[in-house]
Amino acid sequence: MSRGLRRSGSARVGAVPSRTTSTVILVLAALGFLYPLYALFRFAFWPTAQTHGFTLQHLERLGDPGQAYMYSQLFEGIQNSLVIAIVTVVLMVVFLLPAMILAELRYRALRQVIEFVCLLPISIPTVVLAVGFVPVYQQIWHVTGSVAWVLAFAIGIIVLPYAYRPIQSNMSGLDMVTLSEASRSLGAGWFQTVWSVILPNLRRGILSSALITVSVVLGEYTIASFLTQNTFQTALALLQHADPYVAATFALAALLLIFLILVLIGAVGSIGGSAKRKAA
């Protein structure tokens, strides 16, 4: 009898939900995500009782010369956020990626140190970091002037955990030491080995890291607000007091953009997995 109990207990532990249960859970989760988006969409495009149905009348204000200054702040914030995102991605590729490759190939004892440093910002509240950045940027702006792109250095610290994990996950599935030794045994130098052998195998992790970095930068508000810089999120926060309908429209567009980025990351991951299975 004890054997039967152990067998039934192990079967229950390893059981999976039925198709009906899985469908119900997925439908409830989808409703939980989609209903707020629907409410935001309805607020933006069915704004008043006088508009019977879908309307774009509030978006027509974007072309009103009398309100050009108010909306110019929004477009300037979008431009600043895109520039910050590009600079942040470049910083990740120039500094984080070579450090991780070098630690994996030559200084393996440093892998734990790099992981600790990269994951540390996620344990510190963003408000605390922003308060610490204020005196630092006061000195930086004496040299560079109050330009938005230098926020990339501060936001780069915030995105370290999100940029590190996809690359590290990609590296854990590769035997990089064997790949580099095989390449060098064929006469390739270190630069050619990294450029022609290592980086192509890390393409999926690098792309995922870059896309997640862009998503985090587009949604970053705290640091830009504390450092009084005009970015997409700070411009939206100001615009919602003057024109909440246009602010809701752009917020919905940003959410859809981030959703598409996440879908693209998933597609890249599935393509990489199918390519490995075909090669095997």
UniProtKB/TrEMBL annotation:
Question: Topologically, how does it sit relative to the membrane?
Answer: Multi-pass membrane protein
**Assigned keywords, A-Z:** Cell inner membrane, Cell membrane, Membrane, Transmembrane, Transmembrane helix, Transport
An annotated GO cellular component: plasma membrane
Show the InterPro entries listed in the entry: MetI-like, MetI-like_sf
Identify the Pfam families for this entry: BPD_transp_1
Q: Which terms does the UniProt entry file under GO BP?
A: transmembrane transport
The membrane-spanning stretches of this chain are: 21-41, 82-101, 113-134, 140-164, 206-227, 247-268
Ranges for domain ABC transmembrane type-1 come to 78-269
Instruction: List localization entries.
Output: Cell inner membrane; Cell membrane
Q: Does the keyword Cell membrane apply?
A: yes
**Assigned protein family:** Belongs to the binding-protein-dependent transport system permease family.
Q: What's the protein called, per UniProt?
A: ABC transporter permease subunit
